[in-house]
Structure formats: structure tokens, C-alpha cells
Amino acid sequence: MLAAWRRLEQALDPIALFARVAHLPYSLWLDSGAHGRYMILAWDPVRRVDLRFDDPQCPFETIDQLLAEAPQVDAPADAPPYLSGVLGTLGYELGWNLERIGDAKPNPHGIPDGVLILPGKAVILDVLEKATWVVAVTESASADTAVDELLSWCLEPCAPVEAPTTPVARSPLRPEIVKADYLDRVRQVKQYIREGDIFQANLTYQIAVEVADGDPWALFLALRETNGGTYAGYFNIPGYVILSGSPELFLRWDQQTIETIPIKGTRPRGTDAASDLALRDELATSEKDRAELLMIVDLERNDLGKFCRAGSVEVPVLFDLEAHRTVWHQVAVVRGRLPEQIRASEILRATFPGGSITGAPKIRAMQIIHELENSRRGIYTGALGFLDARGHSAWNIAIRTMTYTAEREIRLYVGGGIVADSDPEDEYKETQVKAQGMLRAIDRWSAGTIRPEWV
């Protein structure tokens, strides 16, 4: 397998480019929001692997094998973190391969628990340097010829992306659980905490809406407009499109260091500057939210400590506050130094799924989650990201994430961490706050009022 790249000293329009391929099977978009540096557009895979939690071979070892096939790229020091490698999704249930959690719940669409691609074509935009990197991977043809053809394609005039103007008929929202049942399940989690089983569990549910028609790529543009997403992504798996506006980093590593940035603590944004500041201050002084974050920081420190250099795991940031389009979040940064030789599978086996969306202790929390939740989580609270052949990697926690199925059903997913002093009513309200950006996206998309420009 061969690879070649070209650097273009101009920033192309990512939305206009990707609009030409968003409908293709396994086309994928990753970006880091309005203030991020890189966007990755990838399609036309030369290899694809579907992962299932009950595969005889550990799915994380399968990732190592696929990554080993990716050609090495002789790139300069200022190259983006991704040029050649593996991109895709890791569903929450892949964590069941490592520990016995319970009997599998129905998988009505037959969707794999993970899908990874080694793309034949990729375009990486460096917003800071206003540069575009174009990469082609081939199995037999000349990689130089392929990358020059791809570059020519990128430079072809693109028709402006027009906002959809035709309304999309849709059903009312259909939560899979009524409020009273969610409150009761919060109380059940609190009972497990009182009995000493766990310190915290992340309890979630799904909301469905049926639509008559509509373009999932346009829905993703609406999600970016209403929700934003520091670690966002779109992945067109046939029959099951993933649209993620995640604010949370699961893992990011290079050849030397690794970090995770867990979120615990949420408040809505205010309606004016004064109320916004008051809500921020309320989160900053909440003992309950601080305790919730500390529990997960301890869990993440333990997970990284399984493979990082002895004594290197640290918490350089604790109780920081981040402003997003619809919410305030409280975050921490947990960081460690990697040994000289370590495989991606070793890292993922020790950390997946992320502790912020399971609870602590992780395995017992996952067992209780399985008992209390109605459905498989799938991509929700799994991860979407990349592994580069040079040793770079980044994955989100797939929250603020929707799926769009071939049956024209949109599913969105919400939840929150439950601790000893959680108030069930407050926890339910928090799930509604977290849903707002996604619901507004569906409203704008179905009304045909999306602005397609880059924000």
C-alpha cells in the first residue's frame, strides 16, 4: 500500500468540498469546532473493518492490525496529526469484550459495534495556517498520480452549498422512557450508592423522531450551527449515519504524551449576560458537581496509570469551566507520559469506554447501567476519531450525538452522572438541557432554515 500527499497554501471551503461526497458510503468528517485548528475529510476506503463486541478476536487488537496496513508518510514536522491511518467509530458495547456486563440487548438495525476505515482519499484543512493537505492511499496504482488527481478534483469550482428550503415532515418526539420512570431509575442508582456498590453511574435514555425525508448532511450542518461541538463528526455508515456535536475529549495522544478531558457538571447558558454569569458561578461553586468530577478524575488517573510511565500521571487542570453554545461544563485534564513502545490496543483496552460516561467503579457501574437502561447505547458514549500511522490519535466521547437510520428515524441520546446527593428532578432537567442543541438542530433542519456557511 502506498501514500502520497500534497500541501496547498490556501484553505479550501470544507463544507463545499464535503457536500460532494457526504452521500458516499463511509464518508467521514471530523472537526474541532469554530475555534479548532484541523478538519479531516475522508472517503473511498481501501480497507474497512466492522467490529462486534462478541468477536472471537479482541476488537482492539483488530485495530492494531488495520493500523499496521496504513502506509507510513514522510511528512514534515508541521504536518497535521492525521495524514494516513485509521478513522471511525467505537461503539459503547465494545467495552463488553473486556468484561462480562450482561446479556446483549437487541440490535434492531444490525449495526456493527464499531466501524473503521483506512481511507483512499483524505483532505485535511489547517485553519490556523490557512493550508490544505491532500492525501491519497492506493494499493496498486501510482500514489503520486492519485494524489494529483485528487488535488485537481479539490480545485474544481464548487457550486455554493444552498440551504435547504423545503420543510421536512416529522413526528412528535418519542422518548423511550417517561419522566416518572427516569426519576425512579435515578432513585435506584442512589440506592446502589447507599449500599456501597458504586460511587456514581451515568444514566441515559434515547429520544426518537420519525421524518418523511431529508438529508443527514444538512442535519449535521444544523447541529454544528445550534450546538457546536469541540470534537464533532459525521460518519455515513450505510443505513446508519452518525452526527456528533460532542464537547468532550476521550483521548488524545502522540508518541510521548496522552491526555483525557472528562466533563462532569452542566448548567444551561443564560438568557442575558447577568443570568449567564450567575449560572456559571453556580456551577463553579457546586460541591455536588465538584465531587462528581473528582470521582471520575480518580478513575481516569487509574486508567492512564495502567500503561503510562510510573509516576507520570498528573492533573494539570481541575474544575475548569468551558462555555459551549447551549451549556456551561466543568472539566479537568488528566495527562501522562507514554512508554516508548505501546500499541493502540493497549491504550484502548485500559481506558474504553470513558469513565465519565460509565461511573465508578467502572465495571460495576456498567452492570447497573445495563440493568436500568432500556436499549443498547451503540455509538452513544462510545467514541469517534482517528489513529495516524505516525503515532498520533484523538477520539471524542460521543455525547450530543444523533443517529439517522435508513428507516428515516432520528435518535438522540441524553443522560447524566448520578451521585449520592443527586436530586432526581434536577437530573431529569439536566438531560433536557443537554438535548436542546440537538432539538434545535432538528427544528431548523425540518423547517428548512439552515445557514450553510462555515462558523
UniProtKB/TrEMBL annotation:
One Pfam family assigned to this protein is: Anth_synt_I_N
Matching entries from SUPFAM superfamilies are given as: ADC synthase
Q: Which InterPro entries match?
A: ADC_synth_comp_1, ADC_synthase, Anth_synth_I-like, Anth_synth_I_N, Chorismate_C
GO biological process, any: folic acid-containing compound biosynthetic process
Span of domain Chorismate-utilising enzyme C-terminal: 179-434
The keyword DNA-binding belongs to this UniProt entry's keyword annotation: no
Instruction: Kindly provide the name given to this protein in its UniProt entry.
Output: aminodeoxychorismate synthase
Cite the entry's keywords alphabetically: Transferase
Q: What Enzyme Commission number(s) apply to this enzyme?
A: 2.6.1.85
Anthranilate synthase component I N-terminal domain residues are 12-133
Say which domain of life the source belongs to.
Answer: Bacteria
Presence of the UniProt keyword Transferase in the record: yes
Q: Which Gene3D superfamilies does the record cross-reference, listed alphabetically?
A: Anthranilate synthase (3.60.120.10)
- From the UniProt record, which GO molecular function terms apply? 4-amino-4-deoxychorismate synthase activity
Question: What organism is the protein native to?
Answer: Tumebacillus permanentifrigoris
